[in-house]
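Homework help board

Subject: predicted structure for assignment chain

Our instructor gave us this sequence and asked us to write out the predicted structure in token form, then describe one feature. I got the tokens but I'm not sure how to describe them. Can anyone check?
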Amino acid sequence: MNAYELPQPYLLFMGDATEAGFAKTALGLKDWAPERCVGEWHLPGGSVFTGLPELAPRQAYAEGARALLIGVAAVGGAIMPHWLPALVEALEAGLDLISGMHTRMADTPVLVEAAARCGRRLYDVRTPPKNLPIGKGNKRSGRRLLTVGTDCALGKKYTALALTTALQARDVAVSFRATGQTGIMIAGAGIPIDAVVSDFVAGAAELLSPAADGAHWDIIEGQGSLFHPSFAGVSLGLLHGSQPDVLVLCHEAGRTHMLGLPDYPVPSLKEAIELHLALARRVNPAVRVAAVSLNTSQLSDAEALAAIHAVREELGIPCADPLRHPVEFAAVVDACLAMA
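My token output:
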């Protein structure tokens, strides 16, 4: 796996993002690694906020920041041309640049020139290891849990991190296996699965969660969605390569269409469970869906609990929002362990 030593702390670059789903890197770092974040910086029109102080690069440097981290994404993972003057400004203020975008900063001449001129470094996190193997489908020892979703950007990473934390609190041997740029930035290691050539996605997932002691759990961060026309390929490769024993289905209450695709409705939870099981059984006939992780961030507490209870009654398995309801989430953790 790739391991990273990134300059810290960070100034989070929010660009001009207007949807939280396109700012999940910044929001994830604020929630799971707040001690590494000094502030946030927006371009005109940006309306997604982490709650950190608004700081320009020179202010952030004076506050101790040592890198500007691109915390937002454009469709396709491109570094947008209108961001470039701001990124150069950060380099000139003394900050290194960290990016998890598909577009590599090392392939962006204006950034390469500015970094060289300013004596700064460019860190492209979304770079997979070289010489990845193809998937073999061989059964591996150890226990594996994969978070999967009805759509993109709705809580797969948060759920995996919350489950990892919960198992650690129970003295269970567990590792969080990061598969996306934000998870890698939090964990310090992992494989950016969506940057892997498609033939090698399953092999990368096998490498990410190798054979382990029979009592050890790998909690694998899911990517994309089998239902998303743009990103289903990476989801299927990760599903097959992970060879999970347990799946936790992630869903956002109230979401009606796929992220960025208003003409494609989000599937029902029953449909999502059926499809994931049908495909996962190809590599592990004993796989089970243990629970549903419900993102209730758009609901009041009373509405959230009602939605959780409705899912539990409909499906007959535990359901919780891992960030709001510890009692219900404890039942999710119990169900995951019981499936071993």
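Reply (TA_rk): Your tokens look well-formed. For the description, you could write something like this. The mean pLDDT is 95. That's the kind of observation they're looking for.
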